[in-house]
Specification:
With about 200 residues, this protein is α/β, with parallel strands linked by helices. It is about 45% helix and about 15% strand. It has a five-stranded mixed sheet with strand order 1-2-5-4-3, with helices on both faces. Strand 1, helix 1 and strand 2 form a beta-alpha-beta unit. The protein is globular and about 50 Å long.
């Protein structure tokens, strides 16, 4: 897992360089850490706005907010990501529906169906499996991932420590079998599911 710590400065060129470097590696997760107020969320907002000009496509983003506890609930975080992935990743919705044994719906309802299939999960681990792990394993195995899939989860420092730790642990599971290093709560998280090459 790539980790990068640096004091925030008005010029975030170093951060863009680090993100570009990360995209060129096989690492699946990048934690960008810093003290509260150091500019992590602003960097993520800039990343979302400028992704096209930077050669990056972000398929899903979620922002946790302390004032909205439901936004920090791991099941709801994964449901939010699933709904966005259903809109933006070709084949995701059909695979997610097949895996959840749901009825196929028309394309306008795909995002809602993916959202509710994950929302109906009984625990965060099941939500992670339904939203990320299982659909991307199937898409990769049948050669349907045409590009890397990049997700952002920002505001982990706004979660309770237990929710932040759980979300970070589950998102980091995308790394095959590696032990997970400890992480602090001040992390926006970028996760990439690699296409097959």
């Amino acid at each position: 897992m790539g980790e990068y710590r640096r004091t925030a400065t008005p010029d975030r060129g170093w951060a863009w360089e680090r993100i570009r470097d990360w995209l060129g590696t096989s690492e699946r997760m990048l934690l960008i850490t810093g003290a509260p107020g150091s500019g992590k969320t602003r960097l993520m907002a800039e990343l979302v706005r400028q992704c096209g000009s930077r050669g990056l496509t972000i398929q899903a983003a979620h922002h946790c907010r302390a004032r909205d506890p439901s936004s920090t609930d791991p099941i709801r975080v994964f449901a939010s990501l699933a709904a966005q992935l259903a809109r933006r990743v070709p084949g995701y919705s059909a695979v997610a529906q097949d895996l959840s044994q749901g009825d196929h719906v028309n394309s306008e309802e795909n995002a809602a169906a993916a959202h509710y299939a994950v929302l109906d999960s009984g625990c965060a681990e099941t939500a992670y499996l339904r939203a990320l792990k299982n659909p991307f394993e199937v898409l990769a195995s049948i050669g349907r991932l045409k590009q890397d899939v990049v997700l952002i989860v920002d505001g982990l420092d706004e979660c309770t420590p237990s929710r932040s730790d759980l979300l970070t642990h589950l998102l980091a599971k995308s790394r095959s079998g590696a032990a997970q290093p400890p992480c602090d709560r001040n992390d926006p998280t970028l996760v990439r599911h690699r296409r097959t090459r």
